[in-house]
Amino acid sequence: MNSMKHARQYWYPVAMIDELQAGQQRDTQLLDTRLTLTGDDQCGLIATANEKALLVTQACDHWWVTLCDTPLPIFDLPEAQEHERRFVPCGVVHVECSPLRAVENFLDIAHFPFVHTDVLGAEPHTEVYRYDVKVDESCDEVIASNIRFFQPQAAKSAEGGIHTEYTYRVPAPMVAVLYKTCPQKPDAWDVIALFVQPLSEDSCDVWPWMALFDNESTLSELIEFQQMIFVQDRSILENQIPRRLPIDPGIEIPTKADSTSVAYRRWLKQRGAYYGALAS
Amino acid sequence: MTFTLYNYVLSGNCYKIRLLAALLDVQYGTVAVNFHPGGEHRQEPLLRLNPAGTLPIMVTSDQTLTETQAMLVWLAQHYDDSNSWWPIHDLDTLPTVIQWLGFANRLTSSIGALRQHTLLNKPADASTTRAAGIAALRELECRLAEQSIRGEQWLAGKSPTVADIACFPYTALSPDAGIENDDYPAIRSWLHSVRSLDGFITMPGIHELHQMRDPAGASAGTLRDHHG
Known about the structure:
Chain A is of the alpha+beta class. Chain A has helices at residues 3-7, 99-107, 112-115, 219-238, 259-271; strands spanning 12-16, 25-30, 33-39, 45-49, 52-53, 55-59, 62-66, 86-89, 93-95, 132-136, 141-151, 162-172, 175-181, 189-200, 203-212, 245-246, 277-278.
């Protein structure tokens, strides 16, 4: 299967649920294909490509579309049904980078002290302790767990530094979900997800989304925190060379701290998810 | 409370106020505004505070300011005892400061608008704003090169003024808008000077300077002593 055919099987985010009013139109792009999005009278969304209507669905406060008539099922995120959480779609951020590099950066912990200084990390607390990575065969997802990291301000709701625990899931090549210690509710996990809309192999629109336990912060403060973090990464993502994600070992040299990235690349390769990748 | 800043973390204009307040060591309150995706700045109640529908908005004990450059002057006037950031007594320098405060609006309407387009998918005429942004950078480069020949490193006079703070963010953020600033050596030197100021703070897209460990070991362990 070629990389485009593989990529077309999945669902991708294109808009927030309440973004387009009835009759309102916006052009966008998905997998090199021009799309037109139109809000309809029943608060629905019509997505067309080359005058053909596409399949559309709702998940996690976003509209998702697929270019395939027989797509794979959309990923399952049970926390999106937990109504005691606050659901926070954070708005689109455009990045001139491979959609796979955007996901991979989200999975990386080692850069926290250097890019998200004094928020998600701080010197001298730079060590990435040993953690577990596997491909869960039952759901065919990359799972990284037992990640611990010292964070000066782990979330908007955090007061002072805490040792944060992380678990990551990659349920689709361009969807990454993290579960992290909730500062206000230590027995629960906050959920932060990155939904990536691939415009082309080296540009993407990214739709961060959160499902949090936080009764104190305003919506604006929660969005601001997430946008600040994501845009701190953006200039670095746009300057990574090569533009596409090297998927074969040897082009970039990983360390032990990059185990999640290694597993993600191997998982992409095994399933032929080469869209946005640099393969030999 | 000194003042309250209605703030958006990704706005270069809001960052001007945060930056000068940090340089002058002024504490203040902030209100996060959902500029994107919410568009709160163009809705009530913020429109009542600022009918122009822009950010930042500064509310002091006796007035509301909605023009960024006016806020910089207000900050300097109230918290800079040396009168160097707003050189009110230096009438040779002051008109030049005001000239470059005005110029900062050109950076906002070109690079700032293009950056909102490339970063947040906001509508903008990409080719027009890009051309205007490059023209503005060239003009800034000429000024800074001339200053450099005179032995000066700032836009006006012999020390940093509000004009430097007004012009700094969107110049430094031009790569966000797809306009690299590598080709402007005087600008790059000036950006370095601003980032070297004691008390400098960053924003997303503007990084701190890499600091070398003092070889004598005097400040070993404090690699980031300028970070706020």
